[in-house]
Each structure stands twice: as C-alpha cells, then as structure tokens.
Amino acid sequence: MLSGPFGAVKEQSSGLYAQTFAERGFVTLAFDPSFTGESGGEVRNVASPDIFTEDFSAAVDQLGLLPDVDREGIGAMAICGLSGMALTAASGDSRIKAVATASMYDMSRSMSRSHKDGYTLEQRHKVIEYLSQQRWIDAEKGTFALGFHELPFDANGQLLKGNRVLPEKLPANPDPVLAAFFDYCRTPRGFHPRAINSTTAWTATTPMSFFEFPLAANIAMIAPSPILLVAGANAHSRYYSEDAYKAASGPKQLVIVRDADHVDLYDRLEKIPFDRLEAFFRQNLKQA
C-alpha cells in the first residue's frame, strides 16, 4: 500500500510507485488520504495526523480481504509527508510487516517547528494564536478558509498568509526548493487537477492538530519489523530520514541517493532505487 506526497493524489507519485511495484510482481494499492482526491470525508482539503495514520490501517484491511493477498506479507511505502503517518501506523499496527519511505517529511514537526526546527518559541505561539483565531472566524462564517500549512515569517517577524500551496506562476529568482516543487506540481510533469499542491491549499486551520499530535513518537516500537528510509543527498528534507533512522531501534536501513533532491524521488525513475526497494520488501514480506 502506498500514499503521498502530502497534498498529492494517487495519480501522481504514489501511483507511479504502485505501478512500478506491480510490474515487479507485487499486489499494490495506492490511495488518496481522507478528505482529498477521490477519497471521502468532509471537510475537504483538511489534513489530520490521526486520520491519515488510520488510512494506512484501513488500507491494510482492504488488502487483507483480497483472496490473493497473504495477510502476513503486507508492507507500507510512503512518499514525502505521508511518511510520518506510515511510520506511525507501523508503530501501532503489527499487520504492517515492513515499511519504507522516500523523501520523508514529518508533517507534525514541520508545521509545529518549521524547517530544521527553525521557529522560535515566540513564533510557535504566534502561529498557535493565528490558528486559534482563525477557528473563530470559520465558526462564525460557517465556512473553512484556505491557508498555508507551513506558515513563514517575513523579515519583520510578521506571519505570512496565503491561499495556495504554490503560486500560479513561478517568481523570478525563486528559492530552489520552491522551484523544485513547482516543477513537479504545477507543470505537465506532475500536475493533477485534484491535487491540493497543484491547484489550491489545505484548510487554514489544518496545522492545529499537527501541533497537538506528534508523529512517529513510538517509532522504536516498529521493531522487529524493518524500516527502509530513502532520501536524496541534496534534499532539504534529508534530516527527517536521518533523524528517523537514529530514533528507530532496528532493523533499519538508510539509503542516501547521490545527486538527488527531495522532488527527484517523486518520479525520476533513474534515481528512485527501485531495485533496493524491491529487495527490501521481498526479503521482509513473507511469500504466500
């Protein structure tokens, strides 16, 4: 079972991974997280660390009911921001016998602490206050405003707000990370009309629950099931995989892909280590 990236749909990266694994002989299921894509649930475009984690266990249910699937041979693969949920699911659902991630993001850490834990304590409180007041606005209006799920501050310490994950047009001299995401999500390379990252944004209050609930807090409990973490050598998110590797009790593997950034592992077939991933799952998933 596969899902991710955060804000993507199954027709994008997770579908590519699923198709490639299927071509290599695996039964695969790529799914949209709840409230997104073609999955059900209201309010739309809201993310939840709890429910997105439960989605992986629900996918186990679905796979395990198929007559051709060995219930002792089910694994999870997640890309980008769904990686934290996959690891969290595996820490509490022993039916997941092996878990791999690519370009891991811990969305609770990202939203509540910013990139490389860059928020000051004062900034964290400012974000919480903004989210709390936005809840009143939404409640009074009976609607749900859209907004950034990772909230930046300007040079004057003011919170920046917006209603799109990515701009409609790439600005001049863009930040390299923004340019990489734009190149996948906003161009024919990876654009999809149902993908939040391609066309819109999450609900503005989405980060609230990610402040409240950390992901992968019990990652050491995944053992004795194995973990494989894949990250690009040049990825701005590399530290998430490295920190998860340190926190896991094992068995565990960390694969750093040379000359790859975060988004390269979404769809660059020449860079995604599918041979390594296939070997990992074949070794660790019981054959029927």
TrEMBL record:
Q: Which InterPro entries does the record associate with it?
A: AB_hydrolase_fold (IPR029058), Polyketide_trans_af380 (IPR051411)
Q: What is this protein called?
A: Xaa-Pro dipeptidyl-peptidase-like domain-containing protein
The organism encoding this protein is: Pararobbsia alpina
Q: Lineage of the source organism? A: Bacteria, Pseudomonadati, Pseudomonadota, Betaproteobacteria, Burkholderiales
